[in-house]
Amino acid sequence: MDSVLVDLQSNMQECSLPPALSGTRPCTPQNGSPWVGRKDVPCGSAHATATLEYRLEVLRTHLESAMKESDRDREGVDGRAGSAGDQSWISKVIKKRVCTTFIADASSNGRVCQCGSTLEGHDPVAAANVSGAAAALQWDSLQHSSEQPTDAFGEVEFAGAGCRHSLFLRLSCDTAAQIVYALLTNHWGLPAPNLVVSVVGGEGHQTIKPWVRDILRNGLVKAAVTTGSWILTGGLREGVSRCVGEAVRDFGAGALNSSKNKVIAVGVAPWGMVNNRQQLVNPKGSFPARYYVQHKSLDSNYLDNNCKAFLLVDDGSVGRRGGVEAFRADLEDYISHQRTGIWGSGGIEIPVLCMLIAGDACMLQRVKNSLEKSTPWLVLAGSGSAADLISEVLSSLSDIIHDPTSPSSEGPTPEVLSDDSRQMVRQKVRKYFPAETEVEKLVEHVLSIYQKRDFITVFRGESEDSDDFDTVLLRSILGASKRVCNKAIEWVEELKLAVAWNRVDIAKAELFNGAIAWSYHELEESMTDALVNDKPHFVRLFCENGLNILDYLTYGRLEKLYNKLSDTTLAYSLLQKRLNERQDLNRSESLVNGAASASKASSECLMMSPASELQLSLFEVSRLLWDLLGDVCQPFYYGALDLDPKTSPRVALKQVHKLLLRDCEYRRQRCRSPWTALFIWAVLQNRPKMAVFFWEMAGESVMSALAGCKILRELSKLEDETESKLEMKKLAQKFEDLAHDVFGNCYQNSETLAFTLLIRKSPVWGKATCLQMATAADARLFFSQDGVQFLLSQIWWGDMERNTEVWKLILTFFFPPLLCTRLIQFREEEELNPEVFQGMDTDGMDGNEGSVLSLVDVVQNKEDAEELRALKENLSDAPKPRVNRPFAVLRCRQFWFAPVTSFLGNVLMYFLFLGLFAYVLLVDFKPPPPDGPSPLEIVLYFWVFTLVCEEIRQSFFVDGLFLLQKMKNYIQDVWNKCDLTAIILFILGVCCRMFPASYYFGRGVMAVDFLVFTLRLIHIFAVHKQLGPKIIIVGKMVKDVFFFMFFLAVWLLAYGVANQALLYSYDPRSTWIFRRVFYRPYMHIFGQIPINEMDADKLDFLSCTNDTAAIEAGAEPCIDTYANWLVVLLLVVYLLFTNIVLVNMLIAMFSHTFSKVQEHSDTYWKFQRFNLIVEYQSRPSLPPPFIIISHINLFIKRYIRRIPSVKSQDFAVELRGKKVGQLNVWEAAQKETLLTAQSKSERESDSARLKRTSTKVDSVLKQIAEMRGHDRRLQLLETQLEYCCSSLSWMMEALSQSNMISAGRPAPLLKDHTLLSKR
């Protein structure tokens, strides 16, 4: 409603009332119309503009009052209005026309008015005006009819045509076009068109040729779909309008599941011609009106149910088409001046194209008037009278004008046309319209049309292909736009139209064919339009033809792109939440600084804040990415905002607030990684094609694909709509597959470079590595490939050979001197040669010459890394000898610093810990002090203390995170929760066992704690290749058990309560109630059924009582045998459902889970193995309880000597300088190789081959059709040649018999060419 008012206000501001009307006041309406009987509004054509402005002012007044009465929300989601209250204002603004003067028709004996209605159909006032003088008048709509509030509007439901409703409105023929357009777009919810195709002509019961139907079905609807256009039709089930409706119906039947591609047909029909129109009449609106259509197979004047909306134009007549064409022309002209482009805010006007099919003589004036307004026309030659006339005249006059011998060749204007040309036009008019009397008027119309021939495109459907009609249609508009717009910018306007229509094929053929040198500024606006409206083909086209993305994408433009997000996307709502947080913080600060009240401060803050404060900034985008990606990478765009990554969010909010109040110079800076920024922007909106294109253009392909996978999977968890959730998951899986394929190519090309790719820190993605991002994205498929597993195995075994047996490790673990023997084989250490590092700077990126990083850098320990770094730094100065350690020390370091040794030590010591714990509980658990605890129990306490120290190290002593984030990451792990539970229970048990009162409770807590510690073994054995997948299966089955327990609990409760109530009439003992309601029914499942307490025939007569007082004192109540048969029946039913139904259901669930997980168990295990390797690689070498020594050593190095950790860099290496570019170039080369292979595979697929075969078959069929045409032409030529030969023979015979000519030689003989043809 607001947009309607704004539209009216804008139109009122464009023109002002004349001075003569500035002081006038409207008179009292008569017959319910504000236009009838007014004496203050001047009449005549000179005051037409003032009359229209006066009507707009009255309509605006009605609209304002209607808006005050209607305060309900309208739906506007799928283009349908909501309820009757939403459209109640229509009857106050939109009018209909009613005949107010009965002018009798001479041929009806005074019973029928010239308006077409009978005398009984007029109101008494109009019927009273019957007179002889009135009969001599010619009925006119403006003079003899008045406007009244419309009584037909709302929704119409076509009986038997499905549940889809259409919108309809009866309106006066002189209703302002801006009112109608605002109603269509703002209130009825029709999307603003990028193109309007108005199909005119072919009214009535004309026979439509088959090729015209094919053009409408294959060309018009296709163009409407690809461009997002409206189709204006006659709206009735007759002629061309019916063919258009059938074409729209056929497309809708083939695209039922598509919510985006919809063809919008708007029917503009005369109200007086509509059959059964009384079914639509309802002064309060119809929601819906049920409309019945008869004789659906024949042409009729019923409404066509394929139209989305109907504008039923009323000029007061019945059975005539008066007023429709003029109203339709005004609506087309108004729409052609509206804007389209970037969601209606672009710099181009909506193009309107009129399409002429057949047509009568009146259509010539319609074409002439539209051409005077520079509206382009597409004429279908061969379709009918008016279209054939125009096409022939254009062709004939063009031949005469371009004939050098013609006297009118100097100019095409009608004034210089010769009399022969006019006579030729006159003959053609009489040929196609022999019954018309005003021939000269029609001739002038035709000549005026010819004068505007540049705006006319003729399509000869009988000789041209109907599949190319959509291209011809759009090119005709482009050709007309060249002649309307300025020559300096004509190509830019055409480009904007092509982008609005999303027709990249036309843009390539017409605009990007090499003839135009496009500059950056000419493509800038169209690039933004293509980005916002999700047109990746145009984005690719622009980038390939002169648009530099580095110049285009600044931080300011990136913010504008985020501000143009659709409000229906999930990313928009998430960003708005972050924006509200920043605005709330600003309001709270203003309150602290002395604002008077919260409401006043809030309003003043919004009014006084600059525009940048009220719009999204890069800080909100950074916060959203931090929420989605977590602590995997550093915050985005903090460098542009001049923020420290270690700054807390609240402090960063304050700094951003101060920054946005200033000039914001960062917005003029170029985006450092434009393709990555656009990739993130597309992924947040879940745009598959756009995101894949930006991924192809961006660097760091593996990292970008994994990051996109992570973002989409996090967004899918927040998405509520099922369809969008599935699309996000599908796109996330696609990016995971791309990362898997690209890295697979990299690993096949060079193992060393591929390993470097996995562990190098990405400068674009916030210092994250591929392994870290893959872990966060839960990319199990990525971890399952051989390259990742080979690197993990290399890190897991350290310098030892990977085929070392476990018994050798255990034996060496307990007898370290065996390291000096050859019991365990170690890999040969790579020589630190200066050529290795020089190879890092080479330009060869084939994976075989040089390497960016060697495996020694991956598996090195701290001391070796320090020495290696020092050697690299001093390599250019002078080669220094390496520090050689003794053989025994070197072997000890290589053995004990390997993650597999750390894992083995922890496993062995953990078994020893469990044995000590069990021995203390079973044998050596002493009473409270002073008798206890025993020495072994104290050792157990110390052992648990070392475990606590290790958990503290894992949770709090992690670099680069805030304290809350560290705790959150620690709690998220399931096994960390298990460790925390075990430690808490142990502390509680120790505290309780120290006091006599709680001694036994503490013993019980510690017994339960032993159970929790023992379950921790499951995680330890997850690294085993056979046990790991089975552990995953068991974990999945535990979830199935919970669902089983839910159903079992329902049956337990139902049967237990019923059984207790039937057996015992009164038993208030709570403990026994619990046992008999839950415990006994549960034991029944396993066969423990006390028959002697349930069956009356086998009851044991024990001491019992029915005395209430005795029962309350604790005596055993007697069993009630009244309904013993029901007890037995319930037992049978209970056992049937629990032992057969529920247990078999549990078995089926287990089978399904096993088969589902077993198929991907190897993938799950490899992913879980990576987490375990990372955990033990970061752990100290010594196991508990000796780990306390490592903790003391680490504390001294990190916090006293301030030596940074190097062991944590085993999974993260930062490259600098030329090596970064070389690795990126090599990775990009592997990506291009993969994309080329995929493209080749797609071209060789069966579907592609079938498509090419279909194209070839179509081409052959076209050639065969052309050959048939040539055959017909040859036959015609042969017939004519035979006639000429016969005539010449006759002439020769006649001349030979006469004496007029004497021949000097005999007549030539006809040679026989049959022998030549046989050769």
From TrEMBL:
One function term, GO molecular function aspect: calcium-activated cation channel activity
Domain TRPM SLOG: residue ranges: 168-392
Subcellular location: Membrane
Residue ranges of domain Ion transport in the record: 911-1161
Keyword Phosphoprotein attached: no
Cellular component GO terms held in the UniProt record: plasma membrane
Start and end residues of each TRPM-like domain: 510-785
Lineage top rank: taxon: Eukaryota
UniProt keyword list: Ion channel, Ion transport, Membrane, Transmembrane, Transmembrane helix, Transport
Membrane topology: Multi-pass membrane protein
PANTHER family (alphabetical): TRANSIENT RECEPTOR POTENTIAL CATION CHANNEL SUBFAMILY M MEMBER 4, TRANSIENT RECEPTOR POTENTIAL CATION CHANNEL, SUBFAMILY M, MEMBER 6
Entry protein name: Transient receptor potential cation channel, subfamily M, member 4a
Gene that encodes the chain: trpm4a
